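#lab-general

N.A. 3:47 PM
ok so I finally got the sequence cleaned up, no stray characters, all 122 residues accounted for. can someone with queue access submit it? mine expired

B.Y. 3:52 PM
send it over

N.A. 3:53 PM
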Amino acid sequence: MKTKIDQLIEKLETLGIDVDFSYALGNEDFEDITKFDDIWEILENNNMLEVEIIYYTKAIEFLHEYDPSLGESLKLAYELGFAIEDLNSEVLASILATDMLRSDLSEAGEKINEFINWLKIA
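B.Y. 4:20 PM
back already:
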């Protein structure tokens, strides 16, 4: 029989979010996870909510697909306090990819809370 943490990890991995939940939560005790925010904190403490896109070509391809005008990535860079001289395609792509990952995970927060609550009573 699967443990509750294994069931939670299995459910999280069906969300299509690019995070290795098994690695992040595999050693956690389910009793310590009472809500989505606990998972977020674990991921954040393990630097798993940061995306780094390296290599110019990959960065340009990513930006071309998701932000061809650079409007969104430049806005995010500004909000994060980046100076213009510190920006390049890799930094902009990484900022945008990180924001997209965090948004995807945040949007799944309610579903994750529902499943955690279900597991508590199961």
